[in-house]
Design a protein that fits this description.
Layout (H helix, E strand, L loop, with lengths): L13 H11 L4 H11 L9 E6 L2 E7 L4 E6 L7 H13 L3 E6 H15 L2 E6 L15 H12 L3 E5 L8 E4 L16 E3 L4 E3 L6 E3 L11 E4 L3 H11 L5 E4 L7 H12 L5 E4 L12 E6 L13 H13 L10 E6 L5 H8 L2 H15 L5 E10 L2 H14 L11 E13 L2 E11 L4 H10 L7 E7 L6
Parallel strand pairs: 3-4, 5-15, 6-13, 6-14, 12-13, 14-15
Antiparallel strand pairs: 1-2, 2-3, 7-11, 8-9, 9-10, 16-18, 16-19, 17-18
Amino acid sequence: MRKNKNYNSLPYNKSVSSRARELRQGQSLPEALFWNEIKNGKFHDLDFDRQKQIGNYFADFYCSELNLVIELDGKSHDYSYEYDKERDEYMNNLGITVIRISNEGVLHHIELELEHIAKKVEVIKNKSKNQEKTNIGQLSSALVSAMRETLAAGQQVLLFINRRGYAPIIQCKKCGWVAHCDECSCGMTYHKKTGGLLCHICGRTAPMLRACPDCGAELSMRGAGLEKIQEEVIAKFPGVRTALVSSDTMMSRQALERLVSQMENGEIDVIIGTQILAKGHHFPNLTLVGVIDADMGLFGADFRAAEHTFQQLFQVAGRAGRGDKPGRVLLQTYQPQHPVIKAICTNNRDEFMENDMLGRAAAKMPPFGQLVAVIIEAEKESVLQKYCAELAVAAPKFVGGGSVPKIMGPIPAQIYQIRKWFRMRFLVAGDEKAALQPAVRHWLGKVKQPVNVRVKIDVNPQSFM
């Protein structure tokens, strides 16, 4: 097993240092453009050193204020991957953040790269209640401290949590009863603003119960939505002006325009929102973004979960520091070592995308393959089960486009019942050249569809609910 090096104790090696300078002395066009942007003050007036010597190595650009190194990778530097890897490990052990950008990325996306790198993205590992009994609530002590500093400086804060309402789970403390929608197989969310329960699937409402309907014991509210976050912010920062942004509050274009105007005029101190806030808004005085549950969307049935989470976190992080002041982004997560979280913190989009594509290629998932989802729905569960069983028996082992597509299922849909209709799913998978749609049409035609059954075909589905 390879032993970890003690980089802090490595001696200064003059020959290695000279070779490093020799390898990196040529300035490429992207580096010249980047350096010109810095000298013109477009990098939030941060000071950078060009070709800064750090131990035996030289960094393209070094910012002592952020303890940050920016490396521009391209053919102009004749060094190996292993050399890069050892240099990054050395700097990381000194507490220096290393961000790599391809030369092509700088040439085509320099403004975007500068904007994102200027932010200091930090990870806060969520702790259980037993580990952090002194901090009651959803906001970590580190995030609360950062909010206090930001508000004291007269700047604005954005808190992001992609969960509407106050509490997503209403549960009996004694018998475990949970408030469910009568028409859907999902729980109902408590909305404090309306004082009632709401199903986020079908929109059904119900009054909030005072006690458990089964045993009469006290009910508890578990989990947190943006309304609970607002309540916590007001409790910890008395007098702070807050605003909620979700599909429940932004019901019209006029409402959104009023919010934007209030933010621009400094009438809001802390804005708390869902994915509506993730992109498309420019608030110059907003310098701190706090993501309450950064890994919320990472674990689901969708193979695109990592990609979607990366996009969402990247977009919401982009709300901070869009003006003259540098931005800061804090991610609260239970999975700080997850590739998505690490990619956001290091701005290593290209490596994340490459690894994600390798996984999809191995599994023959789009864009390296095709999918067709077949969703079967019926009001009577027995009819649904019978029809799906007949389809499973009739499923052919067909050959199309030089491949053998697979028919998987049936399995209950992730949300088994919606508006009193029961749901099952098949998934047909094949490679890029497979003629899936004609084959699916032929397969379904072999079994007579009952009159009270609905069949939905979704080619290359975007949702797996």
